[in-house]
Specification:
Layout: E1 10-19, E2 43-51, E3 56-59, H1 65-70, E4 74-75, E5 95-97, H2 103-106, E6 116-120, H3 121-127, H4 135-138, H5 143-154, E7 158-161, E8 165-168, E9 171-175, E10 184-190, E11 193-197, H6 205-210, H7 220-233, E12 240-241, H8 246-251, E13 261-263, H9 271-275, E14 280-281, E15 284-285
Parallel strand pairs: 3-5, 5-6, 6-7, 11-12
Antiparallel strand pairs: 1-2, 1-4, 1-13, 2-3, 8-9, 9-10, 10-11, 14-15
Length: 286
């Protein structure tokens, strides 16, 4: 459990888009017969906010409409404009964590002109290095996002970390490579315990519970080992927040006065659903 003497934070998630009609099989590296033939499993897109009365941290920055159209994704809201629901404008954001540089997590960086952009050094090295000569490796990246990251480095905004680092009092980032070499997660003390924003170290709750990774990955063994890291950092199954699971938006209570933000610092509405064994039900893996 998070210690009573340290600062506590609210953790909010915004579901800003989706990829509907996605075959369930496409979300797992290995099919071991757990999928109903023809079953679909959409992936949703999120960004996250960590805040208390003194601090505000944005985790990931989503992607713009143009990118959504080009990649066949549905954007419900502009993720940056949605910060206005919380009474904050992009130019007032002081700190942004980029979990990794894939298009759906690292777009819109140039819209935060005063923010410190926190990234693992290995991630910048990867997305600007020789691995990008391979089409299948660079496909989840967008050159415009990589250019924005490099520009923020030259502008003095990019803060590069080598391993664990405390971003805010009590809030830490931890490298968990596998999906990309520089993927990092965010660990937050809340009133319900340690919550870990897992980004794409696990796209869905089912990935970690089945120990069956999402098929886009750089290294398999570190990603599998990363599941152990997530479980060690978090205070329970429902404290690990996957990067793309539609159940996140359904299982946690809404933030009062908003339609799109959910409260991850509060108990899940049905704790048994998230903690239950993964299984296929009516075409959905829960």
């Amino acid at each position: 459990m998070a210690e009573d003497t340290q600062p506590m934070y609210e953790v909010l998630a915004l579901r800003f888009g989706t990829h509907a009609g996605r075959p369930a099989r496409d979300n797992f590296l290995v099919d071991e017969g757990q999928f109903t033939p023809g079953s679909e499993m959409p992936m949703d897109f999120y960004l996250w906010v960590v805040r208390n009365e003194r601090h505000f941290l944005l985790v990931d920055t989503g992607f713009p409409e143009e990118m959504a159209v080009r990649r066949g994704r549905t954007l419900f809201r502009d993720p940056v404009d949605a910060l206005a629901d919380l009474g904050i404008a992009a130019e007032d954001v002081a700190d942004v964590v980029i979990t990794h540089m894939h298009y759906d997590h690292a777009g819109n960086v140039d819209r935060f002109p005063r923010a410190r952009i926190h990234m693992q050094e290995e991630e910048l090295r990867f997305c600007t290095g020789p691995s990008m000569r391979h089409h299948v490796v660079r496909k989840p990246f967008e050159p415009v996002n990589v250019r924005s990251a490099v520009q923020s480095l030259y502008d003095g905004q990019l803060v590069l970390h080598q391993g664990e680092f405390e971003i805010l009092p009590g809030v830490t980032v931890h490298p968990v490579p596998g999906h990309t070499p520089g993927t990092q997660v965010v660990r937050v003390p809340t009133t319900r315990g340690w919550v870990v924003l897992a980004g794409d170290t696990t796209h869905l709750w089912a990935n970690i519970r089945l120990r069956s990774p999402f098929p886009i990955l750089d290294q398999l063994t570190p990603m599998l080992n990363g599941y152990d890291t997530l479980e060690a950092l978090a205070d329970g199954d429902d404290h690990i927040i996957p990067g793309h699971d539609p159940q996140v938006a359904r299982r946690f209570p809404r933030l009062a006065g908003t339609d799109d933000w959910v409260c991850l610092h509060e108990d899940a509405l049905d704790a048994s659903e998230g903690a239950s064994a993964a299984k296929v039900v009516h075409g959905s893996l829960l």
